[in-house]
Amino acid sequence: MKIFSTLSAVVIGLAVIAGSQAADLPKFRHVTIDAKVKIGYGTAIADMNGDKKPDIILCDARNIAWYENPSWRKHIVVENLTQRDHVCIAVRDIDGDGKAEIAAGAQWNPGETSDTAKSGAVFYLIPPADRTQKWTPVQLEHEPTTHRMRWFETPTGGHDLVVLPLHGRGNKGGKGDGVRTLAYHMPSDPKGNWSTTLVDGNMHMSHNFEVAQWDGDQANEILLGGLEGVFLLNPAKDGGWSRRQISNNPTGEVRQGAGPKGKTFVTAIEPMHGNQLSIYTEAKGKKLWNRNVIDESLDQGHALATGDFMGTGSDQIVVGWRGTRRTGKVGVKFYYPTNTQRTEWKSLLIDDNEMATEDIRVADLNADGKIDIVAAGRATHNLKIYFNE
């Protein structure tokens, strides 16, 4: 299906959206809060100081920092954890005190898939009493090519740190051992020994994952994308995991979204660093879900998020890309359905060539009831907020 990104949609200002009679398209106000980002590998949004305001956390090449809402003052958490770049963070309040904890991945070296000293690193960061000061890193065991991580609430109510490498050990060209996705179990003293459980070891190259919930179910699951497609991983109370395949198309970014009446859909950028934006909906009686490609014009698509920016009761999609070979421009786009079946979509350009998008997160940052966007740029070296107005 062809996507029409058009100013006429903005002029008209109305679109039929997923069962709504009409809805105003969102307008976004750009605010740059850091113009000296080196790469901006990963972003997160969480309350870091307990003031009930969502702050922004950035994993940059040589430091990890948080930006305090609403001044967006920058506080350095750690610097130079390893010889090579930091690459990912996991941020969440895991102890219920209203202030988020941070884990970090570093020693980014995707070309080295065997030597753990040269590739990959995992840290838990212990906060000081004054969280604007430097935090104390605790290094954990790791697999090579550490790439993504998330805090995961377990069926028993605890929190594990799930860490995803890019490659399996010894892999060359996506062939070799499976990617060892591990769940780290925090001991009572975080400086102690963290045991691990294998979540999945079947993928041969895996780029991203999300902690998800399906169709109103309160139990957490993992949505995992990679070379073999997209899989839904379910934890069991005995510590094991089951897996169910949703697609068999090579995938980079993958996210969950809420359709009408809360019915879940999955959206993906395909393949890794790819050009296609796809939507998957469950197909009754079939193993794989139905696929609808709604855009094939991306260039190194590398950032993906969902949210109800328009107040329609179901989610829209935000995508960022960082390549320039196709159109000569980097940017961020907003996608919205134009029929009640949500089979036809249009797009609205949010950022025209000012964001070489490495990562995106969404949340209501200013408590106005509207979801905003946070994006970090690689070649553009910036961290921006797009306020939904």
Brief digest:
The chain is an all-beta fold.
Report on this model:
The protein has one helix spanning 7-12; strands at residues 28-34, 42-46, 55-59, 63-68, 73-79, 88-92, 101-106, 121-126, 136-140, 146-153, 159-165, 181-185, 195-200, 206-212, 221-226, 229-235, 241-247, 254-258, 264-270, 276-281, 290-295, 301-307, 316-321, 331-337, 345-352, 357-363, 372-377, 383-388. It has 389 residues and is mainly beta. Strand 19 (264-270) and strand 20 form a beta hairpin. The protein is globular, with a radius of gyration of 20 Å. Mean pLDDT is 92; it is low at 1-22.
Helix % is under 10%
* Unreliable residue stretches: 1-22
Q: Classify the beta-strand content into a percent band.
A: over 45%
End-to-end distance: 29 Å
What does the oligomeric state look like here? single chain
What spatial form do the alpha-carbon principal axes imply? globular
What is the number of helical segments per DSSP (H or I, 4+ residues)?
A: 1
By helix and strand content, what is the structural category?
mainly beta
